[in-house]
Structures are given as C-alpha cells and as structure tokens.
Design brief:
Oligomer: single chain
Order of helices and strands: EEEEEEEHHHEEEEE
Low-confidence stretches: none
Number of helices: 3
Structural class: alpha+beta
Strand content: 35-45%
Shape: globular
C-alpha cells in the first residue's frame, strides 16, 4: 500500500496559514471563501504522530479579523498503489472558534497518526537556529541573493543542485518515478526560461522560524516568501519558491 495523505480545508475572510509538523504547507489571504485540498506526504518525515496547526489573521490591509472568519480542516487518506486514488479513511474534522476581538487571530491544533513506507532525512537532526552565535538574517539574505543571481543569470544546473535534496524527498514521499521527479524540476526551470525572473529582495523582509526552530526562511510583509519569480509587465504573474 502507498498511503497518500491530503488535508481538505476551507478558509473564510482571513489571511490563513496551515502548518504540518511546524512546517508551512500553504499561506494565503482570502477576501471571501476558498476550499481546497493539498497533499501533505512531503511534510510527513516518518510514521507516527503528526501535528497540524492552522491560523487565521486579518485580511491583507485590515487590522482586525472579520467577524465571520474561520478555518475548517480534516485529513483524508488514500491508497495510490494502483495508480488511482482509493479512499481509505477520514480523520476528525475541526473548526476554529468564532473570532474574539481581544485575540488577533483564530487558530486550532490537532494531531493524526500516519503510517508511511519511507523515512525522510530532513531537518530532524538540525540545530535550533534561534540559539546559534551568527547573524541568521544576514546569512539568509546573502543566500537568497545568491539564488536570485543564479536564476537571473541562467545558471540553472547550479540552482537545481542546491534545490535537489528537497525535490528528492518530495519524490520519495509522493511515490514519483524518476521520470515524474525529473519532469517536476524541469517544469520549474521551464518557467524560468520562459520569462519568469527572480525579484530583488524587498526591504521589509523578516525571519520566520519553523520545524521547531530548525528551519528558517525570509518573508515579506505580505507574509509570502521573499524569494519569488515574476513575469515582467505587461504579462505579470507570480511564482513562489
């Protein structure tokens, strides 16, 4: 069996974030309502208890949560060993509480048990980056600038080498063949070759720690990744890394 875990969620009138094992799965600002489902195997490092945390904040440009803001979520499990999605089971469904004007967000935490046939080597043995002696933000800014140069100068092979460990883990967790894994990476490079350019880092970047302090990334004031690709005007579009 190849168990495939998905989180099925809805979010209403809020900027929301969903984390699996303290690593972000998705963040987005919604002026209205959205419903979707996302695979989460790539954030499940091994079998056992997994954590989920959802948070909803005021919508972009707002200072208070909308009175109707909420997030609903549940985890569904499928077997994809046959090539089709065969439903196995559904875990409990949860809702955030009604917004309280004294609290600037709504949120909920839960756990579920996963049984997967792999073990990923990721951040488990990493250091707590909040305790290191060097300037984490300075080092990260320099690394992001290096990645921006690689992309915009067309050094795609070097970029792929630095991105490969993450993609190898994704391929293992999502049960991808070598051809499928190569196609995923080729798709990212294809976007770069067809007009997407890495944007300069904005001035308002800040650090966001995850994976219980063992991972860190740069965010901009819109809460999205500071490393993003765009198609220059007039055909403007965004792609986050």
């Amino acid at each position: 069996m190849k168990p495939y875990y998905e989180i099925d969620f809805s979010a209403v009138m809020c900027s929301f974030q969903i984390k699996i094992n303290d690593v972000e799965l998705i963040s987005m600002s919604i002026d209205g309502q959205t419903r979707s489902d996302f695979p989460v195997n790539h954030l499940i490092l091994e079998s056992g208890k997994q954590t989920i945390e959802v948070k909803g904040f005021p919508m972009s440009g707002q200072t208070q949560l909308h009175e109707e803001a909420y997030i609903r979520y549940r985890v569904n499990v499928y077997d994809v060993s046959s090539g089709d999605y065969t439903f196995i089971k559904q875990f409990d469904e949860y809702f955030t509480l009604k917004p309280d004007k004294k609290i600037p967000f709504v949120g909920h935490k839960s756990t579920f048990e996963a049984d997967v046939p792999y073990k990923l080597e990721a951040w488990q043995k990493g250091k707590d980056l909040k305790d290191v002696k060097f300037d984490v933000k300075e080092k990260l800014i320099n690394k992001y600038k290096q990645m921006i140069k690689l992309i915009n100068r067309g050094n795609y092979d070097t970029f792929i080498k630095q991105y490969q460990k993450r993609e190898n883990n994704n391929a293992t967790a999502m049960y991808l063949s070598n051809a499928q894994a190569e196609a995923r990476m080729a798709g990212v490079v294809s976007d770069m070759k067809n007009g997407f350019k890495a944007q300069d880092l904005p001035a308002d970047v800040f650090l966001e720690y995850s994976a219980y302090g063992k991972l860190v990334s740069l965010r901009s004031s819109d809460l999205m990744s500071a490393l993003r690709l765009e198609i220059p005007k007039p055909m403007k579009n965004w792609f986050y890394l």
